[in-house]
Amino acid sequence: MNTHQASFALAALCVALAPCASAQTTWVVSSYGGAQFTQVQPAVDAAAPGDTILVQPGFYSAVTIDKGVLVLASQARMTTLLGANITVRDVPAGQRAVVRGFITMLRSGPAAEIEVRDCAGSVHLDRLRATHVVDIRRSPHVSLRDVTTAVGELHVEDSTVTATDCRFRGATVSMNQYGLFCRNSQVTAAGCQFRGGDGNPFQPVPWEGVLLDGGLLVLAGTDSVVAAGTSPFAPTLGTSAIEARSGTLTIDPGVTLLPTNGAPAVRGAATTAIAPVADTRTDVSDGILTGTLNAPGATFAWLIADVPVLRPLATPFGSLWVGPTSVVVAAAPPGPSGELTASVGVAGLPPGFTVVLQGAVRRGSTLALATPAVTTVEE
Length: 379
Known about the structure:
- It is built from two helices and 35 strands.
- By secondary structure, the chain is mostly beta strands.
- Helix 2 links the parallel strand 2 and strand 3.
- The chain starts with a strand and ends with a strand.
- The chain has a 17-stranded parallel beta sheet that branches.
């Protein structure tokens, strides 16, 4: 591992990000009273774009967010939306909505508990726990970090999504059965686990971990797993880890694919390549943002920090998620394990402020962008 303490870059980073972190109104919500609101929705309605809504621990009803606000659980432990869901829709271009630190529970049936719909602006989902589906449609800039479902797929249609350190498991019903459903979208996933739903008496064959039905899917990270479900009702029938009907699929060799009963790991007519994909990870703790670029085989690497651009830019080297305010926080050959790590102080940035890290690597004469990692600054 090649590690850089990038505190030398803190001043440059904070100067670069300061215009984006200007003070806005902070609203406080507590279901037990003693705050400005007792439910989240009235606070969202009152807030202006750029405002922050801090939600105290408690139990709350459903919320719909249609503007660029930050809705944050106010403490390290998560806050519960009881029998309700989170909907982010119609966020205008040029605005960013952030939702962090909630549990949604007790919603019956396979319907989505977390929905993102028709957002021209950007949306970031961070540290969320849901029972059922996370459903993203017609939204060109969505990022997920540490989002988990108990029995619900990540369903993506006509959108651009990047996910890091997420866990999705399909259900045993004919809707919501994959770990990841990707249709006509561009999705990158690093450090994620996608498991298909298990078989049942009426549909004995288990489901694939991923279904690709058009678009581009990139899977990276040596801790990534794509697994078919299992079934006691079809103990000898095989199920692939990935069904790639159409589109383009790129899989890093370090990704673990787990089909069942001798089935091929990947089946379908999509263009499939097994090729090295560098990935970026982030962690924020005690005012320190740590970024790690995993790039085995790279001869040189760069780790870049910025606020996420409002729409990723397609380049010949991959999707670019950093923009003109970016700061290079590390530049060096990766260590023997292929890692380049940097730590940057972000204590001067407000809670919920969104930061993206993205690596760039050189392998011989070839340049490539790593998958990005988006995170939020903790309190």
